[in-house]
Amino acid sequence: MATTTLNPAAPAVRSGLYEWLTTTDHKKIGIMYLINSIVFFLMGGILALVVRAELAQPGLQLIDEAFYNQAFTMHASFMLFLFVIPILAGFGNYVVPLQIGAPDMAFPRINALSFWLLPLGGLLMGSGFFVSGGSAASGWTEYPPLSGGQFNGTGTDLWIMGLTLIGTSSILGAINFLVTIFKMRAPGLTLFRMPILVWTVLVTSVLVLMATPVLTSALVMLFIDRNYGGHFFDPNNGGNAVLYQNIFWFYSHPAVYIMILPAMGIISEILPVFSRKPLFGYKAFVFATVGIGALGFSVWAHHMFTTGAVFLPFFSLMTFLIAVPTGVKMFNWIATLWRGQLTFSTPLLYAVGFLTMFLIGGINGAFSAAVPVDFAIHDTYWVVAHIHYVLFGGSVFAVFGGIYYWFPKMTGRMLGEGLGKIQFVLMFIGFNLTFFPMHQLGLAGMPRRIADYAAASGWSELNLAATIGGFVIAASMLPFLWNVLVSLRSGKVAGNDPWEANTLEWATSSPPPAYNFDHLPEIRSERPVFDARHGRTAAH
Q: Is residue 507 within 8 Å of residue 517, measured between CB atoms?
């Protein structure tokens, strides 16, 4: 087997907590991203349970309307800005340098700074619960005039400052990913031999660099309006509230792809391994990923159809068009599974869960792309169902698939399959019990972001079912957390390549050494470890 011998300089070794607090090792930083994100996932989940418990029956039973508004606002903020985006960046931090055969990220200290800005931003956001007036309460979009100073207290300013720090973290991380991918690939690893996960991180990083500064500008203007007498979004003084929506969605719709493209990359790594087939249509995947990234900047205004301030035919057409590259990916994932030697281990279960839930999320999103239908369902629970099928059914199922897939590489131990499958079944049932009834609630006219509804509305049974489903999802976290604790202490030893996988991270030890590799296999295809295992080089 031809190999490339490496002579890295091992970094200084420190011990214990001090090492973790001061590390610049991309693997440890990646793991800290994952832990930090799971903590905020649990916090956001608790807030979701508060919201669902309040909606289980008509009437206000548990909390008042003011706290209800804070709860759903911070639930969405934690889940989007402090869980989905950072945890996918965490996978990128851990896996990308390994998959391209690099010893670390290009700028290790900036990488550490990117991480530490996250908990700081999260603490600023969360501290709003402890100040006068409570936390931000205008929804995760913080539309003016609802986010104006006359309606919200210091909590909204803390939300703005926290999100600005989180955005800065994303920008620094994106620069680091791009330089790492373009400058530090191993010999032989051409762009069209890179794993799909690396491609998705590359395109995501471009989206972050182009979109996040735009959001930051909106946040700065909103902060000035609230605190320094600005009138950017105040129509009574020459401002324009719809301008905020344009700026916000110019970031936040590409952000949907920032939240889903790396998840697609994770699924694209899992399916070939557990179907014992190469990924069907590798180059089509690459072009579809680039296509989604490009089209992502042309659809932001479909969130604003009902404002009357956007050109409806163009944005409706572009929204339908983005289904084309997404459909290419879906077709190729199914083709990868077709007639494969399937092994239904926990990562594959989550990957299949991703495919089915994301497909539903795509189909129900098409209704919102049709302008007349969108006018009927806008700001109803249909939209809540859609965003959760895309971001929970998509990103979260992929995240847990990725955790089960790379946990052996990160720790040297296997996660328990039995507990993993119990968690998957609970999450799958709970997810559909929670969010599928919301389609019917939306069609029945239930608005989102309301704390109460009339008993005669006919919404009680569906809301009760959704609430029960929410608690089933919460229960699914118990076997997961127990599984992690038990496996870290006494899990089955993984070995270097427990799944017989294909990409470079499986060519080193589990967990990898500080410098990642002693040597690299010859790279002549997108599956170098497969080639080395079978003593051949793939024609490519």
A: yes
